[in-house]
User: Fold these one by one.
Assistant:
Number 1:
Amino acid sequence: MDLCVFGGGLAMKIRKAVITAAGAQHASLPLQTLVDRAGEVRTALRLTLDEVVAAGVEEIALVIRPGQRESYSTAAGGHASRLVFFEQTHPRGYGDAILRAADFLSGEPFLHLVSDHLYLSRSDRLCAEQLVDAAVRHGCSVSAIQPTRENEIVHFGTVGGTPVSNEARLYEVSTVVEKPTPTVAEQKLIVAGQRAGHYLCLFGMHVLTPTVITILRAALAAAPANTGIDLSSSLNRLASTERYLALAVQGSRYNISEKYGLLIAQLAFGLSGVDRERILSELVHLLASGQPQSTGGGRLS
């Protein structure tokens, strides 16, 4: 099912996606390779595109840094023909990157993913499929979220709200705060039913209505010259403008921009795939081999 009732009762298909990959620290990450669950070598970009296409998306906008189109086309593999590229010259933040694809979207709701996260489903459907299904059923913006420990929330946008009656893992969003401190989270972002010390943090994946583009445009116009805009602030505004939900998807996100992020993502994919036994065997061998440990001063003990 790929039609949703949106914007005055019009049935609309979620057939477009926007992937942002123009951040100075993140631009090369989608070009990295790892082995997927089936044992096949894939670029991180290819894994993200597989996720998007499985959700029913037909056309994909990729927002990149200038001069990277050829590298990304190659990394996309068989999905290259679906891509439309937008270069973010004179960048003004994450929200500005999404706006570069505004004309491509033509007023349609869209799936949005960040390029520095990889997703691993614990369901028979991929994470993006779960999210699109929720947006289709409810006819509104839905952000994917993941319960996250308090000590990690400074790295993520975090939502506050209330559980939706008779809907597992679904929440009405009232507040979104970008990278809150634990004190701010305790004051504004506690959600009923969560484990102590856990908050609902953004997953790097959203289905968004055109209202978000309107809000982002207003935010960019109001921002001082040469300053950037984020997405979380506009999502917070969205929550007071129209119905906005969050879904705790059955899956995990892996931020490959973090230290050891790509390694951890690779282990997660490998340990849930066809090469699980081989990887476990290699890990046991590595741990048992007594590899020398660094003393912290550049010498080996």
Number 2:
Amino acid sequence: MDLSSVLELNAFVPAKDFHVSKEFHSDLGFELDWSNEDIARFKIASFSFLLQKFHVQQHSENFMMSLMVEDADRWWEHFERIGLREKYPHIMLKPPTMQPWGIRVLYVSDPTGVLWHIADRKNA
């Protein structure tokens, strides 16, 4: 088996309200690559994930995504500039903070409850 033949790896992110979740992830800064009634592919740079019209509360609230970026402060500034908290009042949003494990993490939950860790290594 040629292990170098892997071309892509995607997580299937759950969505309680598929249309709201699609809008939310677009607002975050992901590009909607394609979509149908049950699934949507979002991209950023060379990375992607699949948003699926699927929701089991316990699963969704324990689902996490990690995104390593050069500067989490720029993401935070983007979220503040677009009024992310005001547009989606039920999400959790915490600014970048140094964690004990040596990276800075900005936390944001999507409207379904999926927790995004947007991290950088500044000041590590």
Number 3:
Amino acid sequence: MTECPTSSSRRQFLNAASVLGAGMVIAPGVTLHGISEAKAGLPRVSSKVRWGLLVDANKCTAECTACVSACKIEHGLEGHGRVKTDAQWIRKVELRDRGSGRTQSLPVMCQHCDEPPCVDVCPTGASFKRADGIVLVDKHTCIGCRYCMMACPYKARSFVHEVTTGQKSHSPRGKGTVESCTFCVHRVDVGRQPACVEACHKDGKGAMTFGDLKDPNSDISKKLVAHGGVRIRGDLGLDPGVRYQGV
């Protein structure tokens, strides 16, 4: 039987990765460093915290794309070279009530599920959930099988088809791997807000609230107690970390 060229090149990639180890270069000047834990000198990731995002649909308008633009800039997702289309880790979708005709605009991204199906189907362990609930992809071990893309009911993951340029050191990307929203983990680990949330309050309508779902005194917990929150496809029992109000 003749071996598929794609399979052969994939095997060569994996062999090279095993030799290079944790310092493998994803692109010139871009390396991965322990994305499963906080960097040295910072508090270790703990299950005592569960990061979550709350979106107030009543404040989110269709014409506002501050969160989408901020994400592209923060992670270097703008199209470069032959790739003219920007990658999207967060997208705006429109909901329409068939009865009343009322429409709503919502941002949708990786929902950072407590029971993530992407992690369940990943054959290499590249898709994983941190102790604090953030779901990530380890580019060292992702083989681009795309099982996670098929398993995700939110269509929140995408595949990198072309060589990427203009990469950010805190957000490495690589051809042949899968990617999705990281909750801007590099910001969270140093006590900052995700770029989309920051932009929503600075340039948008203030519809997003990010915080610790396990802390009853956090803003997100207080808002959920006062007004409630809906999980997209809550019937699946995945317990997403992203909640929506006013839907």
Number 4:
Amino acid sequence: MTVARGIRFDVRRALAVTAVALAGAVGALVVVFWLAGSTNAFEVQLGDRDFRGINAADLAKEIAENGPVPFPDLVGRDLPLWITHAGSDPATGWSAFSARTPGGANHCLVQWDAGTSTFVDSCDPLSTWPADGRGLGALAWQVVDGELRVAVSGERPDDWARTGATGD
């Protein structure tokens, strides 16, 4: 007479497979965190007082060819901004300012109009500002060793030089 057997469960083998799978998952997580922190292309992190990591010469060339460059909210401060440049020296001639319209609703932003070389209020097309953003919440800037820095906190960080080409 044949006896039916149920499923045989080898506890040692199950524990070994579980241990290997758990070690692989932890190892993969460590690799992901290591890769996520291995780039220094932009040094902006929540709480930073300035926006760094921009090659001034490259950005000046981009602006000369295509106009001002918008940056979305950079560090959780609800501060979208525009950066413009005038002149041929990448160490000077910068303007950085809020993309929010002064006194306007929170959803109103200024947009670049290449045809007129002005910034236009997205909520009121009759409101315009000059190409350097004068009148639009200027932000301090500084070029250090070819790197453009913008003070997104509204204050100059302590490590900024007190002399040299800076915007106010």
